[in-house]
Amino acid sequence: MALCERDCALLDIERTWWLEGRSKTEVVRARLRLSLSRYNQLLSDLLNNAEAEAYDPLVVRRLKRARERRRWATMGVRPASDRRPR
């Protein structure tokens, strides 16, 4: 299943929103007419799509890492890959 125009726009916003000098909420509302909550839901679903990673691998991998860090923080532990060697 190929990415639709909205999916590409989600990844494009995530790649460059801070360059516009506005808050992320303002950028999302102006470009997509979505709330930030809905944007985040759609973006989270998109991270599991192989076509999304093919379209913008750096953004998708960065977002996946951030999601994993949040999951680990919720559990109150750090993954072994983040621990410093002694």
| Quaternary class | single chain
Helix content: 55-70%
What composes the largest sheet?
A: none
Number of helices: 5
Ends apart, CA distance between termini: 46 Å
Number of strands: 0
Provide the β-strand percentage band. Answer: under 5%
User: Segments where pLDDT lies below 50 for 5+ residues?
Assistant: none
- Residue-averaged pLDDT: 90
- Would you tell me the structural class of the helices and strands? mainly alpha
- List the helices and strands in order: HHHHH
Number of domains: 1
Please tell me what the overall shape is.
globular
Question: Would you write up a description of this structure?
Answer:
By secondary structure, the protein is mainly alpha-helical. It has one domain (7-72). Helix content is 66%, strand content 0%. The protein has helices spanning 5-16, 24-32, 36-46, 50-55, 57-75. The protein is globular and about 50 Å long. The model has no long low-confidence stretch (mean pLDDT 90).
What's the SSE blueprint?
Layout: H1 5-16, H2 24-32, H3 36-46, H4 50-55, H5 57-75
List keywords for this structure.
single chain; 86 residues; mainly alpha; 5 helices; globular
Give me a quick take on this structure.
This protein has 5 helices and no strands.
